[in-house]
Design goal:
By secondary structure, the protein is of the alpha+beta class. It has helices spanning about 10-15, 20-40, 105-110, 115-125, 140-155, 215-230, 240-265, 270-290, 295-305, 310-330, 335-345, and strands at about 60-65, 70-75, 85-90, 95, 155, 160-165, 170-175, 180-185, 190-195, 205-210. β1 (about 60-65) and β2 form a beta hairpin. The structure holds S-adenosylmethionine. This is SET domain-containing protein.
Length: about 375
């Protein structure tokens, strides 16, 4: 990198022109006013609680804005590369998977444990359903709102329960090829990370998938209407009927083939048949431009190859899995490390040689 030239000391020591004192006062007043106005009305008043924000890191490549018909949403402020980290956020709280009291009662107990800023962050989030006839004077009103917020924004935090992440929560939903960001929970860090799974252009909305969208449009829309109270008009849901039908077919086919794959685990199909299925799912996924879960798919193939003692195939698939896990879960994720271990030493993996030796086949396509 080119070094910046030092300014000659002489120039530095030159006296700066002085402003008159009244002009200085006026400038100061304007500056203070703009800071105050920006604080109260600026777009970051609600979003400044970004636990991902770190002064030592470059600024985040997106901002939160109002999007007609969607409430708030997240827009890329520059081009984002596939595999870029978008968020790394701790939950405000986690509602355990198993609870012994009614959910609203639990929320009532949880609210007093939040700091003032956490409470503000929580109550800034959107929600879709409150119990009918709930009055603002009801002593449980806040707890009921907090519950509705948790239901609308909650994200699984591993097996522990459901977490609320105020920044990640601003991402709206897209189906199949329409979503471009994927989140995953990191158990060791107790944080949620979100990565871009495809390149995102400046000005494009950053969308994630609220559920597994490998199902037909009608079912997807029903699910979204029921749980999130909106009619999905994402790029895939708004395809013309005939093209949407083709997309639906591909998505259902992917899902069905996934189910068929479980026959390998039950010993009902051979390793090469399982790999054939995986390559087919991969291919249909490419046609659909469905990029998510590819790391997992390739890792399934690794498992098959290891079990059938095919070191070459295991390494090839592990290499593919490493790439896609890297995009989706991060190059520093445990999953990427596991794949590195396979490449280094397939024969020492636990599942090595647990099935009949067979040459199962490697990936047909890497994209
Ligand atoms: C987790 S929040 C997403 C952020 C939210 N838009 C906000 O203002 O905070 C989920 C809610 O956002 C809205 N939403 C999400 N995706 C949408 C979409 N594709 N089209 C319309 N509304 C959407 C729905 O109201 C949904 O209940």
């Amino acid at each position: 990198m080119a070094q910046r030239k030092q300014q000659p000391t002489k120039a530095r020591s030159q006296p700066q022109p002085r402003k008159s004192s009244s002009r200085l006062l006026w400038t100061l007043l304007v500056a203070v006013l703009s800071v105050l106005l920006a604080f109260f009305f600026g777009p970051w008043t609600k979003e400044s609680l970004d636990s991902t924000a770190n002064p030592n890191e470059p600024p985040r490549p997106y901002h939160v804005v109002d999007i007609p018909g969607k409430g708030k949403g997240v827009i890329a402020t520059r081009d984002i590369a596939r595999g870029e980290l978008l968020y790394r956020e701790s939950p405000l709280f986690i509602v355990p998977s198993r609870i012994s009291v009614p959910p609203a009662e639990l929320m009532g107990k949880l609210l007093p444990t939040l700091s003032k800023s956490e409470r503000v962050a929580l109550f800034n989030l959107s929600y879709v359903r409150l119990p009918p006839n709930l009055s603002k004077d009801d002593p449980n009103y806040d707890a009921q709102v907090a519950l509705a917020i948790t239901q609308t924004n909650g994200i699984a935090a591993g097996t522990r329960g459901v977490g609320v992440f105020p920044n990640v929560s601003r991402m709206n939903h897209g189906c199949s090829s329409a979503f471009n960001a994927v989140y995953s929970w990191r158990e060791k860090e107790q944080k949620l990370v979100v990565y871009a799974i495809r390149p995102i252009k400046q000005g494009q909305e950053i969308l994630t998938a609220y559920f597994d969208t490998r199902r037909p449009r009608r079912e997807r829309r029903e699910h979204l209407q029921e749980h999130y109270d909106f009619h999905c008009t994402c790029a895939v849901c708004s395809l013309p009927d005939d093209i949407s039908g083709i997309s639906d077919e591909r998505l259902s086919r992917m899902q069905n083939m996934h189910n068929e794959l479980s026959a390998w685990a039950q010993g009902q199909i051979e390793g090469d048949e399982a790999i054939e299925l995986i390559n087919e799912i991969w291919w249909v996924g490419s046609l659909e431009r469905y990029w998510s879960q590819r790391g997992r798919l390739a890792a399934d193939a690794v498992m098959v190859a290891l079990a059938h003692s095919d070191a070459w195939a295991a390494r090839e698939w592990a290499d593919t899995a490493m790439t896609w896990y890297g995009y989706e879960l991060g190059t520093d994720s445990e999953h990427v490390q596991e794949m590195k271990d396979v490449i280094e030493s397939p024969q020492t993996q636990r599942s090595w040689g647990t099935r009949r030796r067979q040459s199962v086949g490697g990936p047909l396509k890497k994209t």
